[in-house]
Write a structure and sequence with these properties.
This protein has about 150 residues and is of the alpha+beta class. It contains four helices and seven strands; from the N terminus they run H-H-E-E-E-E-H-H-E-E-E. Strand 6 (about 120-125) and strand 7 form a beta hairpin.
Length: about 150
C-alpha cells in the first residue's frame, strides 16, 4: 500500500505542468508562477517594460520582465536555490539544455555559466545557498533596454 502511494506521488510529480509566464510567453500567467512558487508578487511599471517580482517561499526572488507587447523577454533570479528553469525558460529550455551539455563537454570547471547564442543569452553564477541568474532573448529587448538594465 505504502509503495503504491509513493509511486502515485512520483507519477504526479513527473507529469509535465503547464508552463506559465515563461521566457517568450504571455504576461497574463505570472500569477500561475506565483502560485507554483508559493510566493508574493510585486509589480513595477516603467516606460519600456514591467517587472513582476515573485518572492518565493524558498527565499528565491524571480523577476520576469514584460515588454509593452505583453511578452516576457527576460527573467532574472537570486537566492539560496535555483528556480525551476524548465518552467521559467518554457520553450527555450531545450535550447538551454543543449547549450549546457555542449559547454560542459568542452570544459572541466564548475564556474559561472555563460551561454551566448543569437536567440538566447544565459548567465548563471553563485555557490551553495547564493545563486544568481539572468536569461533573455536579445531580439525581444524593447527599444532602449540593455542587458545591463536587467538585474
Amino acid at each position: 500500500m505504502k509503495s503504491r502511494i509513493i509511486h502515485g506521488i512520483f507519477v504526479i510529480l513527473a507529469l509535465p505542468f503547464p508552463l506559465s509566464a515563461s521566457l517568450g510567453g504571455d504576461f497574463t500567467s505570472v500569477q500561475a508562477d506565483q502560485a507554483k512558487m508559493q510566493g508574493t508578487l510585486q509589480t513595477t511599471s516603467g516606460d519600456s517594460y514591467t517587472v513582476h517580482e515573485i518572492q518565493a517561499s524558498t527565499g528565491v526572488a524571480v523577476k520576469e520582465y514584460v515588454s509593452p507587447a505583453g511578452k516576457v523577454f527576460a527573467v532574472t533570479w537570486q537566492g539560496p536555490f535555483h528556480p525551476d528553469l524548465r518552467q521559467l525558460l518554457g520553450t527555450y529550455f531545450d535550447q538551454y539544455a543543449q547549450a549546457v551539455q555542449t559547454q560542459r563537454a568542452h570544459r572541466r570547471d564548475h564556474g559561472p555559466l555563460l551561454i551566448q547564442q543569437p536567440g538566447l543569452v544565459v548567465q548563471i553564477a553563485g555557490h551553495m545557498r547564493s545563486f544568481t541568474g539572468k536569461v533573455y532573448v536579445p531580439q525581444m529587448l524593447p527599444a532602449g533596454v540593455h542587458a545591463e538594465d536587467l538585474r
